[in-house]
Specification:
single chain; 269 residues; alpha/beta; 7-stranded mixed β-sheet; 13 strands; binds S-adenosylmethionine
């Protein structure tokens, strides 16, 4: 990555480092419940990942490690990476406190080839990850390079249509073009777990359409097993959401008009 991207990553890292200390105390992440045994994984990824007990898994952009450690609890041999030093520090502390065997490495996604040794049965990433990455072609190549032959990549992510909205306006307003390739800068008070938290989030992000995601993976030599679009989200992390009987969330505005999530599974031949 060039200097301009390094300056964007630096700002994002500072913001994520600050967010970690708020997120670890938030109701949203419920660390106390997690410590008592509650999984942080949702039904989509548990069902779609299939049986992975005993396999090795590389978790990209693992935040402070709850999802990684939830896979560890299911008998998966996990390595988590994240840009945020605070995230990795808290992930290691949680791992030690819970007596689990995950490895956590501080790394920018684009530095994974130099920072992470070995290859894995599974590469996994979830909910709010690709929007921090300017270049999906290199992302796809890194994923393919970290998979064993026959290995699987799985991503569950917010749908690109969701990122067409400006959530700083009430109600959220359709603002950004689906195919926007330039960087988007946002600065706002709070974070998605606590809107009124004492933090100014400063963030550089990039929107990626479904075609871009799938093409990056196929260009890297992966075979797409499925691309699913999901109507409901397990997370109440956007303004104006309402809960349905199954515990999932929908936008109040534009209800059921477009999917909130997509998931993709790809294999390396
Ligand atoms: C929304 S969180 C991931 C959410 C995760 N599913 C969870 O709830 O625990 C996004 C993560 O991406 C990380 N991140 C952002 N840019 C990154 C980059 N360039 N390389 C690696 N990690 C990055 C952030 O530090 C943050 O932990």
């Amino acid at each position: 990555m060039d200097n301009i991207h390094d300056s964007y990553f630096k700002v994002n890292k500072e913001t994520w480092d600050k967010k970690v200390s708020i997120h670890t105390k938030s109701e949203f992440y419920d660390v106390e419940g997690f410590k008592k045994g509650k999984t942080s994984l949702n039904s989509y990824e548990i069902k779609e990942m299939g049986e992975i007990q005993g396999k090795s898994l590389l978790h990209l952009q693992c935040h402070f490690g709850q999802d990684t450690l939830s896979w560890s609890r299911l008998g998966v041999k996990c390595t988590g990476i994240d840009l945020s030093s605070e995230g990795i520090k808290q992930a290691k502390l949680l791992n030690d406190e819970l007596g689990l065997d995950a490895t956590f490495i501080e790394s920018n996604l684009y530095d994974v080839p130099k920072n992470v040794e070995g290859i894995f049965d599974v590469v996994f990433a979830s909910y709010g990850v690709i929007g921090w990455l300017p270049d999906l072609i290199t992302w796809g190549e890194i994923i393919a390079s970290k998979l064993k032959s026959g290995g699987t990549f799985y991503l569950i992510e917010f749908h690109p249509i969701v990122w067409m909205f400006d959530f700083l306006q009430t109600p959220p307003k359709l603002t950004y073009p689906y195919l926007k390739s330039e960087v988007i800068y946002d600065e706002y008070k709070g974070t998605y777990t606590n809107n009124d938290a004492d933090i100014i989030s400063k963030e550089y992000g990039w929107n990626h359409g479904l075609g871009e995601v799938v093409s990056a993976l196929t260009k890297a030599g992966l075979h797409i097993e499925f691309l699913h679009e999901h109507e409901k989200s397990p997370y109440n992390c956007f303004p104006n959401m309402e809960q349905t009987d199954d515990g999932m969330f929908l936008f109040q505005e534009h209800k059921r008009m477009f999917p909130l999530l997509f998931s993709v599974k790809a294999t390396k031949k």
